Amino acid sequence: TDMAMNNSVTEFILFGLTQDAEQQKAISGIFSILYLLTLLGNFLIVVSTFWTSHTLGSPMYFFLFYLSFADANYAPRLIVDALFQEKTISYHECMTQVFAVHFFGCMEIFVLILMAFDRYVAICKPLRYTTIMSRGVCGMLVILAWVGSCIHSSAQIFLALKLPFCGPNVIDHYFCDLQPLLKLACMDTYVINLLVVSNSGAICVVSFMLLLISYVVILYSLRNHSAEGRQKALSTCTSHFIVVVIFFGPCIFIYTRPPTTFPVDKMVAVFYTIGTPFLNPLIYTLRNAEVKNAMKKQIMTSVDKYGVFNLHFLNILVFGQE
């Protein structure tokens, strides 16, 4: 193919977050801990909300399962790559990573929108909630999120495969993404960058605006609710909104501008690639009594069943309860 003929680079070197040996050791330690906690937190949510908890039968927790699933697949590989001082990655692995990062990142965006829609229906149309958000509808919405994510990431990989590489192969980042790859391409990348901005950038901005509008509508409708109902709805929506801001702020910064890279880009990317998957379980469990109780019940049930050890101390530590 033309792409293969114009491409003399068979592997890339990921520069990482820093080349300072001491800083690299510190980052490796921090990222190792984040890696384990991200997997543990999302695994607990997946188990609690999908397989074992009958009390969390609402669509909100059905979508939370898929959010955690996306997080659990999104962060680990990026964290592992960031652990090494000089990480060599083959051309095909790099292209696969571009696809995976955009697939699970887009999946996270669509699931956050579905969760906002669920909250809107629950608060603004409570009498029709069970009809509108039936199991079949929720399943169809998730399938659409999968298909949409696949279309988006396929477009990204199509643009990446069009790039010819014939010279430097050091990617000034800790994972493969289109922006740093554009800097290495042996061609004028202005048009491709416009396509990236109109694809990734548009998805980020339009989704963020939709979410903001949905929260304005929800907050406006809460004025007619009782104080208790208002407090419960605000608690759930606040958790959701914190995640949205942490995720979309950095995404919009990275994907909605001309082909210029800044030194701060890599640290900004840490927020949405590593920070959000790590914080999601904390935000949803610490601020949501139902999820917290379901997780607590699952842990205690497992211990009672298998008699591994007494989790009294862990129960106090994690849930703050005697």
TrEMBL record:
Classification via Gene3D superfamilies: Rhodopsin 7-helix transmembrane proteins
Entry keyword Transmembrane: yes
MF annotations from Gene Ontology: G protein-coupled receptor activity; olfactory receptor activity
Subcellular location: Cell membrane; Membrane
SUPFAM superfamilies noted in UniProt: Family A G protein-coupled receptor-like
G-protein coupled receptors family 1 profile domain: residues covered: 41-284
A Pfam family recorded for this sequence: 7tm_4
Record field: transmembrane: 26-48, 60-79, 99-117, 137-159, 200-222, 234-255, 267-286
Top-rank taxon, per record: Eukaryota
GO cellular component, one term: plasma membrane
Membrane topology note: Multi-pass membrane protein
Keyword terms of this UniProt record: Cell membrane, G-protein coupled receptor, Membrane, Olfaction, Receptor, Sensory transduction, Transducer, Transmembrane, Transmembrane helix
Record keyword Transmembrane present: yes
Family: Belongs to the G-protein coupled receptor 1 family.
Full protein name: Olfactory receptor
Organism expressing this protein natively: Loxodonta africana
Upper classification of the organism: Eukaryota, Metazoa, Chordata, Craniata, Vertebrata
